[in-house]
Amino acid sequence: MYLEWRDVNGKMMHLQLAPDIEPVTIGRKPNVSRIFSNETTVSRDHGRIGYDEAERSYYIKDIGSANGTFVNGKQVKRASIDKGDVVRCGERFEIFLRDGSAPGERQPTGQTGQQNVVDRPRMAGPTMHHVGGLDNLRDQVNRQGGVPELQRPAQRPEPARPEPRPEPRPELRPEARPEPRAEPRYDDRAAPHAQTNRPSAQVPAVSSVEIDTLRRRIAELETDNGRLMSRATQAENRVKEVERSNVADEGLYDKYAQLKEHAQTLSRQLERTREELAQEQNRALEADARARELERRVKETEDKGADAQERIAGLKVRVTQKDRQIEELQRQYDQLDYEARALKDQVLALEAHINDGHFSNNAYERKINMLQEIIQEKEELIQEKKAELRAKEVELRQAQMGVGLSDLESEKRKLLEDFHNSIKRNDEMNERVSQLNRQIDGLKGELEAAKQAADRKPKEIDVNEHPDFKAKVREIERHREELQQAQRDLAKAEFRLEQVAAEGASAKGLQQDLERLRSRNESLEDQLRETEARVAELLERAPAPAKGAPITPELEAALEDLVEAVIAAKRNALLARDTADKLNRQRTKTGDLADTVELVFDATVVLAQDLGMQERMVKALKQDLGLT
User: How many Å apart are CA 124 and CA 143, to the nearest integer?
Assistant: First the structure.
């Protein structure tokens, strides 16, 4: 079986295969690749064809080519080959496997001289060309003992058969050298004389001209002989150099084998590098996909941020509207306060009329009832306005809690300050209403005293039907509602605390707020203790009121309700303190809790205000009952 391909000139080349051959290299390296091709898709070290002893078959192996090696159109890394197969390197260079022996003509491969049977790589063509000629020349010199036909120029060569000459190797061309010219004319003349044994007396018959000619001819032949001997010596030296070169070529071949093995290792590393590069490219594609996904999410977040800004703007508008509504409610409250002062003036006028005795007791009672009804209507109107104010405050607080803490921190603080101011104004209004109630109660007491003095009859006071008592009961109910609202606010604050703890914001100003909260809670507890002591003292020292006004069960129930309200306030205050402690424990785990602490503090302030109101209620009841 042999290989067949076309060289760079389009000539069909052949290479005989044998089991003992060295691997045949395929590539684009002149003087190195056994099968040379200048096709651009063929790598410099493309593939190798060899014989596998274990499989007892020839194989083709790709040694790291860029464009691949194909057997019968199928890309392979290593595959067995047989006659009839077509090996393609790259895109167009094809090698055919033929059955039989290769044609006997010389088959150079690429730019190197090659034999029909593959053997170890030799020197380049020109060097081997000269080596063949020198071998023939050396054989002739050694065989004849000198330059041919120059040692015995006067003798005729024997007619015997010529001596056998060694055939040159197929790939070597002996160097063309001029054959020494013999003079058969003189040899033919000399031979008959030697054979017939003519006497020597006939030798001088040769003319001197011929002798001179022969001498010149001999001199020329001797000159040629010396030149040829010199060339033979040079040829022997060159043969030795070539032999040394062959030895060097053996070392070069070993080095070539090492380099080839190294190249194969590098090709394997290149394959691994390519695989790693493919993996890196896949990871890069995945990273690019993740980057695009992140960009999409960022865009969505920006869109959501724009929507949040729009919602925040809407909330700001709503907060502004709520502020205006609060201002309107404040104006209405001021109007009611003005009307209350007008009623106070009317009461004073009635007292003056009573002192002057212009009206009878029945007229006084009718006027008092009328004033009580008017006051009750005004109180109901005030309660409605207060309820509406509290509803607006709740809506405002919910709107404040809906706004992003991080985006509207300044607006929220401003709203909280306004809320605190509104609470303070509400407390002031409540205080003024309480003062008015106390003044009205005082006037009622004076009126009752005047009636008693006028009638001179002891008359039992019905505390249950007393307007002041009813007002106090309503106030207790209102404070209960406020306590419940404070509890709800506290629960909302705890919920916000858990949310903020989950978000993990920074803790700015938490320690100062906690200290302030603790101090206020301590003062609140002191007030609670004082209030409990006063209530207990009130219950212990509660004798029957003077002037025939005993303590009824309803009054005792009201006092018990008051005690329960104070206890509930204390419980809420303790709950606020626990919340503060919880904030302190979570201070290192949470973020910016200033807003949440402020909400808890606001709830604590509301509780403190409620406790103050309860204390004022106790004082008012003591005054009503005549207890000092």
Answer: 29
Q: What is the distance between the alpha carbons of residues 236 and 71, in angstroms, rounded to a whole number?
A: 48
Strand pairing class (86-89; 78-81): unpaired
Q: For residues 452 and 449, give the distance between their C-alpha atoms in angstroms, rounded to a whole number.
A: 5
Beta bridge partners of 14: 4
Q: Report DSSP state, residue 533.
A: H
* Cβ partners under 8 Å of residue 322, min gap 6: 392, 395, 396, 399
Beta pairing partners, 109: 112
> Is pTM beyond 0.85 here?
no
Task: Report which secondary-structure segment, H or E, holds 376.
Answer: helix 361-402
3-state secondary structure 447-458: HHHHHHHHHCCC
Please provide the DSSP assignment of 162-189 as one string.
PPP-PPPPTT--PPP-PPPPP-HHHHHH
Please report which helix (H) or strand (E) contains residue 7, including its range: none
pLDDT, tens digit (0-9, with 9 covering 90-100), for 19-55:
888 899 999 988 889 999 988 899 999 999 999 999 9
In 3-state terms, what secondary structure has residue 201? helix
| Tens-digit pLDDT profile for residues 335-368 | 888 888 888 888 887 777 666 655 556 665 676 6
User: Which region, left, alpha or beta, applies to residue 265 given φ > 0 means left and ψ of -120 to 50 means alpha?
Assistant: alpha
